[in-house]
Amino acid sequence: MIFPGSNGERYEVHCAGVIAKRLQQIQRKASLQGRGEAVLVAFRQMIRRLIQDPMNLGEPLYRLPVLRMQIRSCVIRPLVLDFAVCEDRPLVFIKGVELLANTNW
Question: By percentage, how much of the chain surpasses pLDDT 90?
Answer without folding.
Answer: 87
